[in-house]
Design a protein that fits this description.
Pfam families: Alginate_exp (PF13372). This protein has two helices and 18 strands.
């Protein structure tokens, strides 16, 4: 999409304004401060990584006339030492911790919000559904944001249509990354997402036409359907997620791609615990595989991040997790924990990719701060190398 098309869409949003009263957006400043220690032992490296980083994010927004508002957000990341490979510091003898020093514009947008429709133009944070295809990668210190236009409309009660045109993605590796393609990608991508919300769950149909103008082989068209729901069964809660999608080559991709995605995830909430079983399959044909380059990838396929790029033979991830809360006194039910296990195999060829344990504990701290301890232990079976990661984190958001 060129600038002319973008202007036409913007005028379309202005036309919607005449049909819907404006909803005001609060003025003011926001801030987020996050310190993190990340330690990595990767058997592919003789040295272990140790990264201590501090992230400060400052945002401002102001309501304008007739439902319009404007916003800006800056982000700075400082690193204490260089005993890790940030992607920008040249320390390639260490394992990667992609939290490079940075001072960047994270967001800068103009927004209109009406009663049943709205739109945002500029650099913005975007997330669709569970972040599997489009997300902001909020786990990393340098967030992923997008230049483009996004819009949404409530077509009827419970039925919401979302659209986004992406001109550029600003990736988590930062503006100083040694590899220019790791900094940002020029895009011409169209994202369409139609969600129906009912009493027991939601059904989402989506089409993502992703054109990467810097790496043609990354351009794909993805069509899919997602069903999530929950139902009370006595004192317990039964939940489910079912999803299927097909991905093909698009927009000059030199590779003939035709691969599928499946997700089956039942869950049970009872006696203060939530249990999940999952089977996620990203198809591969030995040459190309199902990819989600705009996703919040850290949230999927294990926290050790061994499968940020799906192997050519695809990925079959069978997992189980349990989570809950505990505590007493002032900490009653405020200590949140999760334990998860993954078994990784290829979709094609019968290859064993290894197993991984994950665990986390989140807890409140004085003065409005929150803490997090997180672990990942990946054991290889011929794919990559054994990797162990530890995170210690303290964070606070204002207001």
């Amino acid at each position: 999409m060129n600038l002319k098309h973008c202007i036409h869409l913007s005028l379309g949003l202005l036309a919607l304004q005449a049909a819907a009263p404006a909803a005001a957006e609060a003025d003011g400043w926001t801030a987020n401060l996050r310190y993190r220690h990340e330690a990595v032992e990767d058997d592919a490296f003789a040295r272990d990584a140790s990264a201590d980083t501090l992230r400060l994010r400052l945002g401002w927004s102001r309501a304008l006339a007739s439902g319009f508002s404007a916003g800006f957000e800056g982000e700075g990341v400082a690193a204490l030492g260089d005993r890790f490979n940030s992607g920008a510091n040249g320390e390639t003898a260490y394992p990667a911790v992609p939290d490079a020093r940075a001072l960047e514009i994270n967001q800068a947008w103009l927004r209109w919000r009406g009663e049943r429709a709205g739109g945002t133009l500029g650099r913005q944070r975007l997330a669709f559904d569970n972040h599997r295809f489009v997300g902001n990668v909020g786990w990393r210190q340098n967030e992923q944001t997008f230049d483009g236009l996004s819009a949404d409309a409530t077509l009827r009660e419970g039925l919401v249509l979302r659209y986004a045109w992406l001109d550029r993605v600003h990736r988590v590796f930062g503006d100083e990354a040694r590899d220019p393609l790791a900094r940002e990608r020029h895009l011409d991508s169209h994202l369409l997402n139609l969600a129906w919300q009912g009493a027991d769950g939601s059904v989402v149909g989506y089409g993502y036409w992703h054109e990467d103008q810097d790496v043609a082989a990354a351009s794909t068209r993805t069509l899919g359907l997602r069903w999530t729901g929950q139902r009370a069964v006595g004192k317990a809660g039964l939940g489910w997620t079912l999803e299927a999608a097909n991905q093909r080559d698009h927009a000059g991709n030199p590779n003939a791609t035709n691969v599928d995605y499946f997700l089956v995830e039942p869950s049970l909430a009872a006696r203060g615990l939530t249990w999940k079983l999952g089977w996620e399959q990203l198809g591969g044909d030995g040459r190309t595989a199902f990819q989600t380059p705009l996703a919040t990838l850290h949230a999927f396929n294990g926290w050790a991040d061994k499968f940020l790029v799906t192997p050519a033979n695809g990925l079959d991830d069978r997992y189980a997790s349990v989570s809950g809360k505990f505590g007493s006194g002032r900490l009653d039910d405020k200590l949140a924990w999760t334990v998860a296990w993954h078994d990784f195999q290829s979709d094609r060829g019968g290859f064993d990719y290894g197993r991984e344990w994950n665990a986390s504990l989140a807890f409140p701290l004085p003065a409005g701060f929150s803490g997090l301890v997180k672990l990942a232990d990946y054991r290889s079976d011929g794919y990559a190398r054994d990797t162990r990661k530890l995170w210690l984190q303290v964070e606070r958001t204002w207001p």
